[in-house]
Design brief:
The structure is a single chain. The protein is an alpha+beta fold. Helix content is about 45%, strand content about 20%. It is built from 5 helices and 3 strands; from the N terminus they run E-E-E-H-H-H-H-H. Strands 1-2-3 form a 3-stranded antiparallel β-sheet, covered by helices on one side. A hairpin with a 6-residue loop joins strand 2 and strand 3. Helix 2 packs antiparallel against helix 3 and helix 3 crosses helix 4. The radius of gyration is 22 Å and the shape is extended. The chain starts with 15 loop residues before the first strand and ends with a helix.
């Protein structure tokens, strides 16, 4: 007996794609969503499920293929909800232990005055080379080359 497409189940780990329509404040929005499992949480034993959204089915399918390929190749990086500002706080507290006090002071000032206001609200997973380059271009108009180099040291 032939199977209908609606009764078929995707291969384990391949994910699924569906069209979603939501109404918010009287306005209707339609988008595509893919769901996939990246493994199991070692603490709870539950599956780690993630969503990918986009305007077209093709866009979402491509992102889903990339995510599942990364999982298969063991190069997958779990999406993070941490923002750059929070990571910089962790970095300052954990990684600057053996650094000279004046360097710590300089880095603290750069983070507080320049980096956090410009990029601090950005999720680490959303941070990309173009955003960082635009930031460097902006600060290089206001700061000396040495200070821009120090900013780069912090971000790097």
């Amino acid at each position: 007996m032939p199977h209908s497409n609606q009764n078929r189940k995707n291969a384990s780990g391949s994910g699924s794609i569906r069209k979603k329509t939501i109404t918010n404040n009287g306005k209707t929005y339609t988008y595509w969503e893919a769901r996939y499992t990246s493994g199991f949480d070692p603490g709870t034993g539950k599956q780690r499920q993630h969503s990918i959204t986009g305007k077209t089915q093709k866009e979402v399918a491509q992102k889903l293929r990339q995510a599942t390929a990364d999982i298969d190749c063991h190069t997958y990086v779990e999406p993070s909800k941490i923002r750059l500002a929070a990571w910089l706080d962790i970095w300052q507290n954990s990684y600057l232990g053996g650094v000279k006090p004046r360097t710590v002071e300089i880095y603290d000032t750069l983070i507080r005055i320049h980096i956090k206001p410009a990029l601090g609200a950005t999720y680490l997973t959303s941070l990309n080379t173009q955003m960082i380059q635009n930031f460097y271009n902006d600060v290089s108009k206001k700061l000396s080359a040495k200070t821009v180099k120090n900013v780069h040291c912090v971000i790097h």
